[in-house]
Amino acid sequence: MSTQFGIRREVDLNDFEKSLGGLKGIPIELALPHKLENYNLRRTKMTELGKYMIENDIIIYSVHAPQGHLASKDFTEWAGETVKLAESVGARVVVFHPENIKKFGKADKQIIALRNIKQLQRETKVKVGIETFGGRKRILSPEDIIQKELPMVLDISHLFERRTFEIIDRYYSNIIGVHLSEKRYDEIEKESLPHMPIKELGFKVLDRLKELSWKGVVTLEYLPKYHDRLIKDRQMLEQTYTTSFSNI
Q1: Higher pLDDT, 244 or 188
Q2: Cβ of 240: how many Cβ atoms within 10 Å?
């Protein structure tokens, strides 16, 4: 297995061609609808979506699940469907968001979430990864993910730079995917924003991962107004890093 580079693309379940057309041969992280309620309205289209991907030669490295709750009673339903889709299209990773939760009662909810995640992982060879978010309101913080020894998807736009490298150095062997972008000042919006195109930090992260002989899935995730840069940047990273990662 070598490090692979893709781009994030959210699917419109009402119109596959509108959201996924023109991606033949381009590796992606397939993002299902952000809100679980929107996913539920069209969840019967999962089999059709899988067939569309295969018929149109779209390469899927990872699948991003809807943002349902890891501790919910219906977790096995929507999460299980997401994993089945990932299996059908040959994806290596399924990414889950840890929901915000009140501090009171977190321990009990976390037990349920961990039980759900581990049960799901036992039923599939696809890696079940939990994405990193800063702050302590998440049912699984980065520290929780490390303590519980869960597969991690490191999103560097959600963490401070120092924390990002602390996590890489401490936990790189269990990082199965990286969402690559940067949080920095946007001259257009006149404010600091996440998911900006890579410029400096992104390359530092990749250089450090290469030093550690890391191998996994790297996904470029940019704000919509920068989506026109995704394919070109992915190609640049593949040309720059794939050979060096593979030869480690």
Answers
A1: 188
A2: 13
DSSP state, 138?
B
- Contact yes or no for 216/178 (Cβ under 8 A): yes
Q: Identify the burial level of 29 via C-beta atoms within 10 angstroms of its C-beta, where 0-12 means exposed, 13-18 middle and 19 or more buried.
A: buried
DSSP state of 73: T
Percent of the chain with pLDDT over 90: 90
Q: How many CA atoms lie within 13 A of 167 on its CB side?
A: 31
Give yes or no for residue 2 having a pLDDT over 90: no
Q: Is 220 helix (H, G, I), strand (E, B) or coil?
A: strand
3-state helix, strand and coil shares in percent for the chain, rounded to the nearest 5: 45, 20, 35
The DSSP bridge pattern shows strands 175-180 and 60-64 to be unpaired
**Structural tokens at position 121:** 């992982």
Within 10 angstroms of residue 154's Cβ, the number of other Cβ atoms is: 26
Given a cut of 90, is residue 102 above it in pLDDT?
no
By CB neighbour count within 10 A (0-12 exposed, 13-18 middle, 19+ buried), where does 129 fall?
buried
Please write the tens of the pLDDT for every residue from 24-40.
Answer: 999 999 999 999 999 99
What's the rounded mean pLDDT across residues 69-83? 97
- Maximum CA extent, the chain: 48
